[in-house]
Hints:
Blueprint: H1 2-20, H2 29-32, H3 34-45, H4 50-65, H5 70-78, H6 90-108, H7 114-117, H8 120-136, H9 140-155, H10 160-171, H11 177-185
Helix pairs in contact: 1-3, 1-4, 3-10, 4-9, 5-8, 6-8, 6-9
Amino acid sequence: MKKKRRLIDEILEIELTMILTVSSKEKSRIQENSSTFKVVRECGFKQWSIQTLQSYLTDLKNAQKRDLNLMELKYARMDDLIPPLNLNPIIDNIVKLEAIWDKRTKRGYPNIFKASLSNKDEDDTRLARYLRAEFETFSDSTLSYYYINLLEAVRENRNLVEECLTCIFKSIGYQSLAEANLFMDAGPKN
């Protein structure tokens, strides 16, 4: 576990440096609140195997050596400002699987997602664009390890989107997604 913790910490340090140096006309919310960025990313990384983390850390270090900012590339891809970075067909499989988990999680905890559920098609498109841009910054090696993680989760009947969100909500004081969903249902009614 210590090795995994060290890998995650090193990845977060590099990613945070990258995200804070993304050049844009306006600072993003992420750039203004780095602690939220770290919690969200860490909760995702906790689902990854050590091999996937090691491979991704290598990707980040290789990018640094080549003076590339993977976060900047990801956001440029999301805005369609640059051509695709990686055409590996595994990306399509990963995006489809993550989208299935995302839909299941939204169905199971609708109050958490009220805002995004109001325009489902736009939200689905935004998610797919974000995921594709993220995974295009991964090396083929990292993509393979990541896909193996996903397939293992499917075999174990796990939902990694739900696990990541559970981690995020626990970090802000909820015991579970169910508790957060109930709390958000108790909000003001129109």
